[in-house]
């Protein structure tokens, strides 16, 4: 398998983008990635999108996006894995370049969530329809059950959850692409409206429009496009039980653990070797569970990590330096690519105020639903 590098990245601002449609956002991000690399052609592209058919009534996204990018004729595929759609699109692009099938492949993600659909019902399609949705469970409800189980098993507190939001909003305030560029206090988080006990409004990621794209090529070609390529050294994908009731422990995300283990084995490194990470914090409890499953902290010890400064910029393992889904925003199909862009910029040394000193190895973890799918990529600066 050939070594693969990222050589360009492009991204829209995340937020309520009322003046941009699905294809407009995709073209902005994809054109940005091509321009960043100085490239004018593609062999193929992958479009991660969870629910374009329900949000805006548009499916068959591969050829549509290729056409509007001015790349009609290239191989173009729509990828869906719920909120992990962007990360899985990156994996498919990585495998295509690594196999030698293609040289220039775009991995992108896009979602238009603020027009024309009931967001709660659309997102519920990523849960088990017969065992969960039929009985009225929503995603805030599912993650509330995960949070309650973690609290009961490990003594995690609502204040622990609040500090994840505080930390990620602090990071996001320094990100000009973030939906919410403002800091919050623990008191504000804990006083915000109750959504699904114990989760409050400021424990939850927002409803977001946005797109992101990265350009991949063989590492041996990378210097044709950039002086600072970033190598993709590993990709791990795993699945787990869809329904929380079918899991041995709802507070432990086994698909995240398995995808992380596969990536670490492929990269021949361990959690202590990672300098910066982006993990899937759709709710604050998700970040806590993900850093445990990935081995950044011991199981049950993730609760106080943000409060203690462990996962802040300057801490032992900075997590979600972009602001995470919580502050940057969560346009579900685009999230995995946006995570990758943050790691790409960190390893290039171009993250500005958010820069992690001497960052050489980065990790991005993107998951679908309540953790039924998870994909982990590990990156290294060249």
Tell me what you see in this structure:
The chain has 382 residues and is an alpha/beta fold. The protein has two domains: 4-118 and 208-224, Thiolase/Chalcone synthase (Peroxisomal Thiolase, Chain A, domain 1, 3-Layer(aba) Sandwich), CATH 3.40.47; 138-204 and 233-381, 3-Layer(aba) Sandwich (Peroxisomal Thiolase, Chain A, domain 1), CATH 3.40.47.10. 34% of the residues lie in helices and 18% in strands. The chain contains twelve helices and eleven strands. Strands 3-2-4-7-1-8-11-10-9 form a nine-stranded mixed beta sheet, with helices on both faces. The protein has a two-stranded antiparallel sheet with strand order 5-6. The longest helix has 16 residues, at 22-37. The model has no long low-confidence stretch (mean pLDDT 97).
Any descriptors?
382 residues, alpha/beta, Peroxisomal Thiolase, Chain A, domain 1, two-stranded antiparallel sheet
Instruction: Domain count, please report it.
Output: 2
Shape label: globular
Q: Determine the mean pLDDT.
A: 97
Summarize the helix and strand pattern as letters: EHEHHEHEHHHHEEEEHEHHHEE
Instruction: Write out the strand line-up for the largest beta sheet, numbering strands in chain order.
Output: 3-2-4-7-1-8-11-10-9
- Low-pLDDT ranges: none
> What do we call the CATH topology of the largest domain?
Peroxisomal Thiolase, Chain A, domain 1
